[in-house]
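For this section, I looked closely at a protein sequence along with its fold in token form, which I now present.
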Amino acid sequence: MQVGAALGSRVPMAVLENLAVHRGKPAAVLNDSVATLGAELVVLGGKHHSTLGRWLGGSTAVSMARTALVPVLVTVGAPAIRRVLLTLDPSAAARPAAAAADRYAALFGAELRGLSVVEPLAVLPEVPQQDTTDYYRRWEEAIARDVWPLIRTSGVGTVVRHGPALETILREAADWHADLVVVASHGKGPVKRVLVGSVTEGLINHLPTSLLVVPAGAAPVGPDAGELITVNREEQA
């Protein structure tokens, strides 16, 4: 009753009529609901007014990004989506992420940009340092060959940036004024770098804009998607 009263003036009555309240750990409950409903997307609120709300919301979003078998959309700011920033690296997770970004860009009539980040080489004691120029060249060749062709939207601008992944993605999203950042989870590049984990967790915790996390095995999500699960807590509202 309290949840319904808190949401009464904020969501359509049709949503409230189908509101379900479950007990348990949020990520486990959500993943069970995804399986039960055959949902293709989970939507989480990303901004919280209280310290407890921020902690709970961030924790749930990170847990879902790590465990969900479907894309997870963490929302923040205005719902209008005019610019979609797709971040990719050469990995098995790139294809479903590119498909999701293509379909969202088409759905909202948004501009799409592809971003790939080449992180600096790790410096290990007593290990000969690889030639930096050759390292960057091989990475960019792999991106041009294996990654950019996955984007089906015509006329998409693509950029390659050098630097730490999290800071570079945050800066690109801010500089380009992106409304949605799409990131692939469980992605490993040629140097076995895991994109989910510290990078995705950092994006969730900082949330420069709405964030869509797409698992490697996810089916494409678009305008013909089925059930959506939305999560609203009183402190999130």
